[in-house]
Amino acid sequence: MKYDAVVIGAGFSGLYMLQRLREAGFSARVYEAGDGVGGVWYWNRYPGARCDSESIYYNYTFSEELLQEWTWSSRYPEQPEILRYLNFVADKFDLRRDIQFETRVTAAHYDEENQQWLIYLEDGSQVSATYFISGVGCLSAANIPKFKGLDQFEGKWYHTGHWPQHEKVDFTGKRVGVIGNGSSGVQSIPVIAQEAEHLTVFQRTPQYTIPARNHPYDPAFIKQTKENYQQIVEEMRNSWAGFPIKPSSRSAIEDSQEVRQQVYEEAWEKGGFFLTYTYNDLTMHEESNETVSEFIRSKIRETVNKPDVAEKLLPSYYFGTKRPILDTHYYETYNRENVTLIDVNKAPIVEITPKGLRTTDAEYELDILVFATGYDGMTGPLLKIDIRGKDGLTLKEKWAEGAHVQTYLGIANAGFPNFFMITGPESPSVLANMPLAIEQHVDWIGDCLEHLRDRGVPTIEATLEAETAWSKHCREVADATLYPKADSWYTGANISGKPRSFLIYLGGFGVYRHICDDVAAKGYEGFSLASSPKTVS
Ligand code: NA7
Question: What share of the chain is helix, strand, coil (3-state, %, to 5)?
Answer without folding.
Answer: 35, 20, 45
